[in-house]
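Subject: for your reference before the review

Hello V.,

The reviewers asked for a structural picture of the protein, and I figured it would be easier to keep everything in one thread rather than splitting it across files. Below is the amino acid sequence we used in the manuscript, unchanged from the supplementary table.
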Amino acid sequence: MSRIDPEATERARRRKGRMVALVIAGAGLAAILAPYLVAWAGLPLRFEFLIYLAAMAAFVWALVVSLQLWRDRDGR
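And here is what came back from the structure prediction:
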């Protein structure tokens, strides 16, 4: 019978939380900077919407992972 190392579990949980924070920050920056990036690169408007859709997908992913972290916490 193997026992799960609580310290390793907590480290993994913290790593996952940091990843969620970075994804939220990156998606927010991408959404804010989308018009400027598209104008700077001279791309059509549809690429701006593509960036917005990618940012929304990142926010949904972050929400799902955050809910998993919240659900998996130890008896709190």
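For the response letter, the relevant points are probably these. Residues 13 and 73 are 9 Å apart (CA to CA). Helices lie at 6-41, 45-72.

Happy to draft the paragraph if you're swamped.

O.
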